[in-house]
Specification:
Helix content is about 45%, strand content about 20%. The protein is of the alpha/beta class and about 250 residues long. Helix 5 links the parallel strand 5 and strand 6 (about 140-145). Helix 3 (about 70-75) packs antiparallel against helix 4.
């Protein structure tokens, strides 16, 4: 796998932090996988998700990318005030749009290649938000065991404008015009188990918001044998990426 692994790093003025992005594979559909809360760009390799995807990577059907979850770290470690944490969500998404996505496209040698997204838990939040916010760049998302209502993790009841524009539960109902027209050409799939620490209600709530705006989506319940944990996600992501790249 060593020759398939490429790591790059740069200082992000938007995030005011060192940024890391990792790529596995040389050819195929680019897929940006967001880490779980506080995870880094190499989390998916340590947790063996990359190994589960390896047959698809080796066959040249997908290229996997991942970046550090700066916003997730700030949110769940309670770094800064609630308003600062909400601002970080917005900054992180702008970093993904203006820094990560262009880096992926440069690496692919195609400045208009559509990018797919995925992630588990809070990574699912970012995967879905990326498609909903920037459907001209991100064309498809798989949210695994998603957590979409982040306000329950913060010690205030009211959200800021930064959080509003970052959270699909909040901003999608207000979409109209060309943005919504493009988003209606995309696909978002929600996959979740119903076992330990899972909450199917999160996926259904997000899907309901999308459905009301006629944005293509689907909820796939995996049942009570699947927990909120890496074995579940190691089964989910290869399954869907295999189906989508046939």
């Amino acid at each position: 796998m060593a020759d398939e692994f490429v790591k790059s790093s740069w200082y992000s003025e938007r995030m005011r932090a060192q940024s890391t992005m990792v790529r596995w594979g040389h050819h195929g559909q680019p897929v940006l996988v967001f880490p779980t809360a506080g995870g880094d760009a190499e989390e998916i390799e340590r947790m063996k998700l990359v190994y589960a995807l390896w047959p698809l990577i080796e066959a040249g059907r997908i290229k996997i990318y991942s970046c550090d979850s700066v916003a997730g770290s700030a949110w769940f470690r309670k770094e800064g005030s609630p308003a600062e944490r909400m601002a970080m969500q917005h900054k992180f998404h702008q970093y993904v749009k203006h820094e990560v996505a262009p880096a992926i496209r440069r690496d692919c040698g195609n400045d208009s290649v559509p990018i797919w997204t995925s992630g588990a838990s809070i990574g699912a939040f970012h995967a879905v938000a990326a498609v909903c916010r920037f459907p001209d760049i991100f064309h498809r998302a798989l949210g695994m065991s998603g957590t979409y209502d982040l306000m329950r993790f913060i010690e205030v009841k009211n959200f800021t404008e930064d959080y509003f524009v970052s959270s699909p539960l909040q901003f999608v109902p207000t979409l109209s015009g060309p943005h919504l027209d493009v988003l209606r050409q995309r696909l978002i799939v929600f996959a979740s188990g119903d076992g330990r620490a899972e909450n199917m209600g999160e996926s259904w709530a997000m899907a309901n918001v999308l459905g009301k705006k006629r944005i293509p989506n689907r909820v796939d319940p995996w049942g009570p044998d699947w927990n909120h944990d890496w074995p579940t996600w190691r089964a989910m992501l290869p399954k869907y990426l295999d189906e989508w790249t046939r």
